[in-house]
Amino acid sequence: MLKGRHLIDPEDLHLQELEEIFQLTNLIIKNQEDFHNLCKGKILGTLFYEPSTRTRFSFEAAMLRLGGKVIGFSEPGSSSVMKGESLPDTIRT
User: Fold this and answer.
1) Cα distance between residue 92 and residue 55, in whole Å
2) CA-CA distance, 88 to 17, in Å (whole number)?
3) What is the DSSP letter of 5?
4) pTM of the model
């Protein structure tokens, strides 16, 4: 599936991959205790360019519940994109 890939754009996913993600999501919801360390050692980078506290917090909470960590910013004016860097370059960094 997605192992070892970076997701820059939702269109990077094929329909079959989206279906697999939704199936895994349902499995996690039904068996939360089995997945509490699924993302241990992983870091989620969040890049929110529009104010959305609830959305940002829901992504961060989900990652923390899976044992991962979160880095990111909530102020788009402080991003490299605002200084002219492309969004894909910012994401890769």
Assistant:
1) 22
2) 21
3) P
4) 0.66
CB proximity list for 52: less than 8 A, separation 6 or greater:
none
In whole angstroms, how far apart are CA 55 and each of 48, 51, 84, 93? 9, 9, 26, 23
* Separation of alpha carbons 53 and 51, rounded Å: 6
The per-residue pLDDT for range 10-22, each reduced to its tens digit, is 788 889 999 998 9
**Residues 6 or more apart in contact with residue 15 via CB below 8 angstroms:** none
The DSSP code sequence of 54-89 is HHHHHHHHHHHHTT-EEEEES-GGGSSGGGT--HHH
> Is 68:43 a contact under the CB 8 Å cutoff?
yes
Distance CA 92, CA 69 (A): 17
